[in-house]
Amino acid sequence: MAGWWIIGAAMTLIGSIMINFGTNMMKLGHNKRAEAEARGEEIKGKSKEWLIGVIFFSVGNVLNFVSFGFAAQSLLAGTSSFRFAVLISVLPLDLEASTYLSCAPCLHRYP
User: Fold this and answer.
1) What is the chain's alpha carbon radius of gyration, rounded to the nearest angstrom?
2) Residues 57, 87: contact at Cβ < 8 Å?
3) Is the CB of residue 14 less than 8 Å from the CB of residue 86?
4) I need a labelling partner for 79 at 20 to 30 A (CA). Which of 11, 17, 50, 67 fits?
5) Are 47 and 33 a contacting pair, CB within 8 Å?
6) Among 75-79, 97-101, 107-111, whose mean pLDDT is lowest?
7) Three-state DSSP class for residue 44
8) pLDDT digits (tens, 9 = 90+) for 1-49
9) H helices within 1-111, ranges in order?
10) Which residue from 58, 61, 51, 16 is spatially nearest to 30, judged by alpha carbons?
11) Which residue, 37, 26, 17, is CA-closest to 90?
12) Is the peptide bond before 111 cis (omega within 30 degrees of 0)?
């Protein structure tokens, strides 16, 4: 049982990356839908990007939840904060957005 914490930490890191990727994919789907609506196109159902994002987001959250069975919460709490650092650094690159600072329960945008 001594090495199980490594599995828990790895699951948390992978889950955090999947949650970020899913969040960005869902946002991309919303952006594409808004652009299509602005052009006056008829939209049926959800976009592929949004559905892929939901799947990655959900699987990442399940991984984070399961990781608590392998490692102590005191270790995983710090490890899961990795998600926010990645989100802040990757969001401007992926979606051509300006820098966002995470603030519960909202996001404040700084130009």
Assistant:
1) 17
2) no
3) no
4) 50
5) yes
6) 107-111
7) coil
8) 578 888 888 888 898 888 888 888 888 888 888 888 888 887 777 788 8
9) 4-38, 48-67, 73-80, 82-95
10) 51
11) 17
12) no
Tokens 């939209």, residue?
43
User: Structure tokens of 11?
Assistant: 């699951």
The Cα 73–Cα 48 span in angstroms is 35
Q: What is the per-residue pLDDT across 63-91, written as a single tens digit (0 to 9) for each?
A: 988 988 887 887 777 776 776 776 676 66
The model's pTM: 0.72
Name residues whose C-beta falls within 8 Å of residue 57's C-beta, 6 or more positions apart in sequence.
18, 19, 22, 23, 26
Domain limits of the chain? 4-109
